[in-house]
């Protein structure tokens, strides 16, 4: 049977259309939430982190952790495992992860003019016109960012991305559902030998992507009848070594017959390919108002394969803690505005699992004692030997990993 995928602008009555389709067709609905939940089970990533890939904002730590790319690879795997089932309606952002070669998927987009959407937002959420407008623009921005990252299309509602685009301000829910059902019955979206084969290729592609992600790699994967092509889109210091490693991983995936590597169109861009090392700290936030010192320290940690970003004051650090969830803070005590001790106190109150290493040139014994009582992992004095700091970071990382294992056991 054919599959339906529905991507919708906000406040376009998607829920009502889906309810009507389910009543008429008896299809099963698979929302993003279900896919993310299943992806979390098999990946070890949290469901919240996986769902975060649908937002327009990428974590500042992502270039070190590849969490967004890893999350997408697991979402693709769950999609690929689910697609062979019959009578399905996929709804949400993940619909854009289904390859276009799978032509027995009827791709539907629900849209409407802003006036209509504002009215629906007022009816459903009790929002004022200005509140609804702001919310709609924010959600449209998320849709645009997501679709652009996957397709290079700036308009998330571009008709070329869908089989039918339904204007919900010009149709009733019943008419929209009837239109979708009418198109669902057409031969063009009936399962065929080619589309079934495309599902098999998608499944193998997803398995290879996950196998590579588990080893810290992020490359584009294409699969045709068991032949795998790996596309490297970033500069590589030792290309031959990387190609050999990628092939050795992909060749072990069941169903792979051959593996080839190629350099992609973005290979000559400035970014350097970075393999994610699961054993090294990858989400380290350095907080210090001495800009030259902290920037140099960050670069030295990155040279040691430790992912780090910088904040120059306490408030910026707290904002990053809230938005990007670092795992380790290296924190100075004396800063303008919110000082290090207050940052430590607030971090341990709101995110107790974050390990905090105090690194200061002005602290006293009383400060050291207070910091340790507040939950600091270590207290170090400037100037610090980089090997001592690296060793302390690794110990903090080991503690974090062990805590995660204890939770899952």
Features:
single chain, 409 residues, alpha/beta, Rossmann fold, 2 domains, five-stranded parallel beta sheet, 15 helices, 16% strand, globular
Short description:
The chain is α/β, with parallel strands linked by helices and 409 residues long. It has 15 helices and 13 strands. The strands form three sheets. The chain has a five-stranded parallel sheet.
Structural description of this entry:
- The structure is a single chain.
- With 409 residues, the protein is α/β, with parallel strands linked by helices.
- The protein has two domains: 3-189, Rossmann fold (3-Layer(aba) Sandwich), CATH 3.40.50; 284-408, Rossmann fold (3-Layer(aba) Sandwich), CATH 3.40.50.2300.
- It has helices at residues 14-25, 32-43, 47-51, 62-65, 67-82, 114-125, 129-151, 173-184, 193-214, 239-250, 291-303, 314-324, 340-350, 365-373, 386-408; strands at residues 3-8, 28-31, 88-91, 105-111, 164-167, 220-224, 227-232, 258-263, 284-287, 308-311, 328-331, 355-360, 378-381.
- The strands form three sheets. A five-stranded parallel β-sheet has the order 2-3-1-4-5. The protein has a five-stranded parallel β-sheet with strand order 10-9-11-12-13, sandwiched between helices. A three-stranded mixed β-sheet has the order 6-7-8.
- Strand 11, helix 13 and strand 12 form a beta-alpha-beta unit.
- It is globular and about 75 Å long.
- The mean pLDDT is 92.
